[in-house]
């Protein structure tokens, strides 16, 4: 904890010094213990290296050669997949010491990520940095009087980072075990509102699209909670959505930039920027050819270097997001570098319910329901008409589309009906899931007003 406070106080020079030392240690460890990276780094000169000396690594390459990438031979793709096949193990330690999670990401390619204890300690410490940046003394007192109740409304049922990290937190001590909780994003809205009203959390975490839905319930008086902290992540936030959420709940909407690869990349300030925890993570905005993007211009993608994780070294890893780095120091006074993310948006779908009413559906909840069907590798849902969804599927090797599709249709139809959608029409599109031809990003759920990728 002391070191992150010093790094922040020392500013760019102190952060750069930590980055250099940690990068050299990480590369040396990877060359010694990761067969894949030893091969990729074979032509490097001896001695200290810079990021520019190192190759860019993509998710597909790393996932395809998972067993040769990791530095602990007891960690295998087969073992991780077997461990993650049991939802009861969410947040539990793999091989006694590792936190594991899964993600599809903006490219749509599934990822399996293993975090060692050094990474877990870094995330916990950086989370405290974020709390100190966001909460006043009065807020801390309000948390204490509300018994530190923190509820996350996130996708559940798989080893996703959001639910998994909350379970890790719950295992830290008895206070968190009693006060931290997860409500499945897939919960029908009336039941979700009832549960939140009963818990009245001091802090509420979810996706912007879901918080937008809940803000309408709060404004209508059906939801009646008094959060001290409102946190959003996982999607970009439109200004109108932010204003609606903040107006309904009466507190600022805080934002985190996180991923399954690094759980606490950046946090928001009052000036609308995200400050990067750059003493433990390095972000390089680059163009389509991997060349540095000038400050103040949106990047094609961003390369992530994880300075804490040694079991699964992520060095110049193509994260897939477009970012824009702020020119000069941020007016908020935080000396850590600031950026904005042009990542995935979470447009709320609206489908017909009872006559004259439209039901709001959070895209991540809908996608999660479909993804959890056995045999699904990737899924893409397109709203072709007000009451009609088309489903594109990619199944795992050995699975049959004709077997998986009826189960996906049943899961999606049941979920929509539980949310109050009247007679949802869910049809199969034999085209495979596609990335956007312009951005190269993968959008799992495409609302009616958005053009389908070609």
What does this structure look like?
- The chain has three domains: 2-119 and 259-342, ANL, N-terminal domain (Rossmann fold, 3-Layer(aba) Sandwich); 146-257, 3-Layer(aba) Sandwich (Rossmann fold), CATH 3.40.50; 349-446, 2-Layer Sandwich (GMP Synthetase, Chain A, domain 3).
- The protein is α/β, with parallel strands linked by helices.
- A hairpin with a 5-residue loop joins β8 (266-268) and β9 (274-276).
- The termini are far apart.
- It contains 15 helices and 20 strands.
- α1 packs across α2, α12 crosses α13 (239-249) and α14 runs antiparallel to α15 (401-418).
- The model is unreliable at 450-454 (pLDDT under 50).
- It is globular, with a radius of gyration of 22 Å.
- It has a nine-stranded mixed beta sheet with strand order 4-3-5-6-7-8-9-14-13, with helices on both faces.
- The longest helix has 22 residues, at 12-33.
- The chain has helices spanning 2-10, 12-33, 35-40, 59-64, 66-69, 77-84, 117-134, 137-145, 161-170, 174-179, 189-199, 208-220, 239-249, 363-371, 401-418, and strands at residues 99-103, 111-115, 150-154, 180-184, 203-206, 229-232, 253-257, 266-268, 274-276, 281-286, 301-306, 317-318, 322-325, 338-342, 349-352, 358-361, 376-385, 388-395, 425-428, 445-446.
Key traits:
Rossmann fold; 3 domains; nine-stranded mixed beta sheet; disordered C terminus; alpha/beta; GMP Synthetase, Chain A, domain 3; 15 helices
């Amino acid at each position: 904890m002391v070191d992150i406070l010093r790094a922040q106080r020392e500013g760019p020079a102190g952060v750069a010094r930590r980055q250099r030392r940690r990068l050299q240690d990480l590369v040396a460890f990877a060359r010694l213990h990761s067969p894949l990276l030893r091969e990729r780094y074979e032509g490097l000169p001896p001695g200290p290296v810079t990021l520019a000396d190192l190759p860019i690594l993509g998710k597909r390459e790393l996932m395809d050669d998972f067993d040769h990438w990791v530095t602990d031979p007891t960690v295998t793709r087969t073992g991780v997949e077997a461990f993650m096949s049991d939802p009861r193990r969410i947040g539990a330690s793999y091989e006694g010491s590792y936190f594991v999670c899964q993600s599809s990401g903006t490219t749509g390619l599934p990822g399996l990520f293993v975090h060692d204890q050094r990474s877990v300690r870094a995330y916990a410490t950086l989370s405290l940095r974020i709390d100190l940046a966001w909460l006043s003394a009065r807020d801390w007192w309000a948390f204490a009087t509300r018994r530190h109740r923190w509820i996350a409304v996130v996708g559940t049922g798989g080893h996703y980072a959001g639910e998994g990290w909350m379970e890790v937190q719950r295992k830290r001590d008895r206070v968190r075990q009693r006060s931290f909780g997860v409500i499945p994003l897939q919960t029908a809205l009336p039941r979700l509102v009832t549960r939140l009203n009963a818990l009245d959390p001091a802090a509420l975490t979810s996706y912007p699209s879901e918080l937008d839905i809940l803000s309408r319930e709060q404004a209508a008086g059906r939801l009646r909670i008094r959060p001290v902290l409102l946190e959003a992540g996982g999607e970009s936030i439109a200004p109108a959505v932010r204003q609606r959420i903040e107006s309904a709940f009466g507190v600022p909407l805080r934002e985190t930039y996180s991923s399954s690869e690094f759980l606490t990349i950046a946090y928001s300030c009052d000036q609308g920027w995200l400050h990067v925890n750059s003493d433990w993570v390095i972000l390089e905005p680059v163009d389509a050819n991997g060349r540095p993007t000038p400050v103040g211009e949106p990047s094609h993608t961003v390369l992530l270097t994880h300075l804490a994780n040694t079991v699964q070294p992520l060095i110049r890893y193509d994260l897939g997001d477009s970012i824009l780095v702020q020119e000069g120091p941020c007016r908020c006074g935080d000396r850590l570098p600031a950026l904005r993310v042009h990542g995935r948006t979470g447009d709320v779908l609206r489908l017909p319910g009872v006559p004259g009413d439209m039901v709001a559906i959070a895209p991540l909840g809908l996608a999660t329901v479909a993804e959890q069907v056995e045999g699904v590798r990737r899924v893409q849902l397109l709203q072709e008409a007000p009451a009609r969804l088309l489903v594109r599927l990619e199944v795992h090797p050995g699975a049959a589309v004709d077997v998986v599709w009826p189960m996906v249709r049943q899961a999606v139809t049941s979920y929509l009906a539980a949310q109050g959608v009247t007679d949802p029409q869910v049809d199969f599109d034999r085209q495979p899931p596609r990335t956007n031809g312009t951005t190269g990003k993968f959008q799992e759920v495409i609302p009616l007003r958005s053009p389908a990728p070609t």
